[in-house]
Amino acid sequence: MSEFARPFDDSYWRNRIQSVFAELRELSGDGVGVTRPSYGRAETLGLDHIAELAAEGGLSVGRDPAANLVVTLAGSDPSLPVVATGSHMDSVPHGGNYDGAAGIVAGLVCLLRMKSEGEAPQHTIRLYGLRGEESAWFGKAYLGSLALFGELTLHDMGRPHRDTQLPLRHYLEELGADVARIGRGDRLVEPASIAAYYELHIEQGPSMVARRVPVAVVTGIRGNIRHFRVLCRGATGHSGAVPRWLRHDPVFALADLLTRLDEHWEKLQGQGVDLVITSGVVQTNAAEHTLTRIPGEIAFSLDIRSQSQQTLDDFYQLLQDECAIVRRNRGVEFEFDEKILTPPGEIAPELKRRLVGICEELQVPYIEIPSGAGHDAAVFANCGVPSAMIFIRNEHGSHNPQEKMDLDDFILGTEVLYAALSREAKCASSRST
Ligand SMILES: [Zn+2]
Fold first, then answer.
1. Residue 51: how many CA atoms within 13 Å on its side-chain side?
2. Pairing verdict, β 237-238 and 293-294
3. Cα(329)–Cα(263) distance, integer angstroms
4. What is the distance, to the nearest Å, from the Cα of residue 320 to the centroid of all Cα atoms in its chain?
5. Distance 140 CA to ligand 1 centre (A)
6. How far is CA 161 from CA 39, 46, 185, 266, in A?
7. What span, in angstroms and rounded, lies between the C-alpha atoms of 349 and 328?
């Protein structure tokens, strides 16, 4: 800990922050963790609660035409582009209290503190409480931020809710969203009207816990290429009777393919290339597979992620080349389903530098890491808003009730966010070291 005063570390803010998280947990507890369905009641209750606290603190509160919460601290020069922060309120079923909500609470206390300090920033500062970030509910992620930039399609609005099967459109209408406008692809906000977007989020992987740092500055948000189902077809046979040279064994073919991909991965990683590969679903046909049978086919999924589109494209080509070799060597066929691409989210270098500079200055221990998971910040970035992210250490991963974020870590990260927002908005105030 440095000798610098940390305003969020005094008992007033500590208590406030703790109680806001406790209240959010209360509003959406499910007995195990928290459940805040996208465009559902608990998500609305959470956003309404944040709105209430913001209004009590003298901030302006509203909802945009996609039913996202918008909290505003007016700047002294309304002609300047706004500085934005935010995150999502929804969670996966039986999720944790901090995934998403941490970024909204951080933004809220930053705006409340600036308001209480009395000097208006030059740029308006805006907090977004976004809806529908988790793909668990409608099969697609970032619904709230996509709607913001006119990127939510009619097809998306027809997506059925996982439990009720009612389309997303129904939920949007219930919340008073302007469905016609969203359906037309109207931008609810112009990217050029936002000077910068900073999102604070818990880390969802194990790196920061392993490296014992409370805060991270995100270097890039990994995009992905996915196939939900690739089929490798061979030829079925008796496990004892078919000699190796006459086999067309799809399981060995897949093992061969994954080993080849792993070798490339290891080599590329050694060259400093950002890449992760997962084959999370591997299935032989349960209706016919058995110990003594060479299976006729095997189905598997592929999730290839990188911060670089070029790496994704290059690795995808490598995958095709290796499939061709395995096909020839082992007499099997590969059948790919639809290729789904989510582009990487580029972190704005100048914003990242600002965050790094603030960490150095405030003596906040930090590392620089990529974000393996997707975030609304990637949507902002891909729509042309300069964007950056701050991660907070979090034990036990995310998307589960065991998420564990330390209040001290949150305070350090929020201090960094505060400094970034106030500098970006050029506060007349000079308190934030
Ligand atoms: Zn999240």
1. 18
2. antiparallel
3. 18
4. 28
5. 13
6. 10, 20, 21, 40
7. 45
Q: Which residues are bridge partners to 216 per DSSP?
A: 367, 391
Q: How far is the CA of 389 from the centre of ligand 1 (A)?
A: 12
Q: How far is the CA of 133 from the centre of ligand 1 (A)?
A: 7
- CA angle centred on 337, ends 333 and 342, rounded to 5°: 130
> Cα of 141 to ligand 1 centre, how many Å?
10
How do 366-371 and 215-221 pair as beta strands? Answer: parallel
Q: pTM for the full model?
A: 0.88
The first and second tokens of residue 114, run together, are 């600036």
User: Cα dihedral angle (71, 76, 78, 84), rounded to 10 degrees?
Assistant: -40
pLDDT in tens, 80-139: 999 999 999 999 999 999 999 999 999 999 999 999 998 889 999 999 999 999 999 998
- Give ∠ CA 158-151-186 in degrees, rounded to 5: 100
Q: What is the pLDDT of residue 342?
A: 86
- Which residue has 């977004």 as its token pair? 128
Tokens for 341, please give them. 């691409």
Cβ atoms of 151 and 383 closer than 8 Å = yes
Give pLDDT tens digits for 147-188.
Answer: 999 999 999 999 999 999 999 999 999 999 999 999 999 999
Distance 104 CA to ligand 1 centre (A): 11
Question: Which tens digits make up the pLDDT trace of 398-412?
Answer: 889 999 999 999 999
Q: State how far the alpha carbon of 255 is from the alpha carbons of 281, 290, 321, 323, 325, in Å.
A: 13, 18, 16, 12, 13
Q: How far, in Å, from the CA of 73 to the mean position of ligand 1?
A: 24
Which residue ranges in the chain fall short of pLDDT 70? 1-5, 427-433
CA of 373 to the centre of ligand 1 (A): 8
Q: How many whole angstroms from 323 Cα to the centroid of ligand 1?
A: 34
- What are the structural domains, with CATH classification, of the chain? 7-221+344-424 (3.40.630.10), 223-342 (3.30.70.360)
| H helix or E strand, kind and range, residue 48 | helix 41-56
Distance (angstroms) between ligand 1 centre and the Cα of 102 equals 9
Decide: 160 and 166 in contact? Cβ < 8 Å: yes
